[in-house]
Design a protein that fits this description.
3 helices; mainly alpha
């Protein structure tokens, strides 16, 4: 999964950089469209896969502010 995420990140980065290249040297509107596609790819493909990879096998309640966790935090400060 780590290698897939790296490949997807470099693909996203490549799309965005290609968009800036096209925007500056070839055609402004086409470059803007390519940059937009790169951002959409990052937001709707790369980000969910990345978040799934980082949060799998973790207990969400460990990161929530429940009464029990608040008591643990205040006891650590004392």
């Amino acid at each position: 999964m780590k290698y897939i995420l790296r490949i997807l990140f470099f693909v996203m980065l490549g799309i965005i950089l290609r968009g800036y290249y096209v925007k500056e040297l070839v055609d402004y509107k086409d470059g803007e469209k390519i940059i937009g596609l790169g951002v959409l790819f990052g937001a709707f493909v790369y980000l969910p896969i990345f978040l799934y990879h980082r949060w799998k096998n973790k207990n969400i309640s460990d990161y929530m502010l429940t009464d029990d966790n608040m008591r643990k935090m205040t006891n650590k400060k004392k």
